[in-house]
Amino acid sequence: MATQDTRAERAGRGTATGAGPRIPGSRIPGSRIPGSRGPASARRSRGPAAGSAPRGRAGWTPWLYLAPALVVLGGLLVYPIYQLGLISFLEYTQAQVSGGEPTTFQGFGNYAELFADEQFWQVLLATVLFAAACVVSTLVTGCALAVLLTRVRAVPRLALMLAALGAWATPAVTGSTVWLFLFDPDFGPVNRVLGLGDHSWTYGRLSAFALVLLEVVWCSFPFVMVTVYAGIRAVPAEVLEAAALDGASQWRIWRSVLAPMLRPILVVVTIQSVIWDFKVFTQIYVMTNGGGIAGQNLVLNVYAYQKAFAASQYSLGSAIGVVMLVLLLGVTLVYLRLLRRQGEEL
């Protein structure tokens, strides 16, 4: 009897506290099974955190900061490009400029005339080849000197930097005149040192292009050198030391370590070099006296100048300018697209 009373009392206490005898497969009310998501109220998505700005307002904030620059760029770039494209669709010569004849709409007539000109295609091919040679030479020279800056002491580094910045700051007309004097057939020191006598560097087509290429690289490599040098200095020294300890040569370190890490910087300097070298004007015009003998050293920029101002065919000159703009945009977009396909973040 005592034992039965004790069991009854235990059962009564369990019922009173709500923790009655456990049945296999059952669970206590209010408890949570491991792995479950809990009540529906806990599964509801939470709203935006307190104090956070609305997404629409946050999306407009960067554009507000960029608005002044966009206004300036719109005035300096968009409107001139619009005028350039407009004139390329018109009959616009000296007669229309002076008011002697009315301006008429030609549609794509100027482009048809331009593409039918055999000289245009010859100048276009020469421009592409010349610009490609300038870009490759500038990048190789600038990157090699940037690596050299990391290997020399402070005094030689400072001297090289000052000399490069001096070349970079020299106006194109002044630099072209100096290079013409250096390679002058009568008084130039280069012919005397090389023993070439009165050899004229600007007479032959290839030698004239080579002379202009040297001047273009001379005034362009400092930008590449300074930019790439700054990128190399930002690379952790431990990475370069580890590559050197593994026995990698300087060329292997550049190709396998530095170049991949500096790829965003190399993209910028490459695109800048393509734009600058494709539209070279001053060096060609000064050093070849307006395009060389019988126009053998013409590039698109000089060709457009001759059409627009020497021949007073402003509409054809504008059409050449539009073609150059489309080509540069196309090259830049294709280059960026190829990098995006390789997984590069730009």
Brief account:
With 346 residues, the chain is mostly helical.
| Average pLDDT level | 83
Oligomer: single chain
What's the gyration radius in Å?
36 Å
What is the straight-line distance between the termini? 87 Å
Biggest sheet, spatial arrangement of strands: 1-2
Count every beta strand, where a strand is a DSSP E run of 2 or more residues.
Answer: 2
Helix content: over 70%
Characterize the main sheet: 2 strands, antiparallel
Number of helices: 16
Percent of sequence in beta strands: under 5%
What distinguishing features does this structure have?
single chain; mainly alpha; two-stranded antiparallel ribbon; disordered N terminus
How would you describe the overall organization of this protein?
Helices cover 70% and strands 1% of the residues. Helix 3 (55-88) packs antiparallel against helix 16 (314-341) and helix 15 (300-310) runs antiparallel to helix 16. With 346 residues, it is mainly α. The protein has a two-stranded antiparallel ribbon. It has helices at residues 2-17, 40-43, 55-88, 94-98, 109-115, 118-149, 154-169, 172-182, 189-194, 205-234, 237-245, 250-261, 263-278, 282-287, 300-310, 314-341, and strands at 90-91, 104-105.
Write the SSE topology:
Blueprint: H1 2-17, H2 40-43, H3 55-88, E1 90-91, H4 94-98, E2 104-105, H5 109-115, H6 118-149, H7 154-169, H8 172-182, H9 189-194, H10 205-234, H11 237-245, H12 250-261, H13 263-278, H14 282-287, H15 300-310, H16 314-341
Antiparallel strand pairs: 1-2
Helix pairs in contact: 3-16, 5-16, 6-10, 6-13, 7-10, 8-10, 10-13, 11-12, 13-16, 15-16
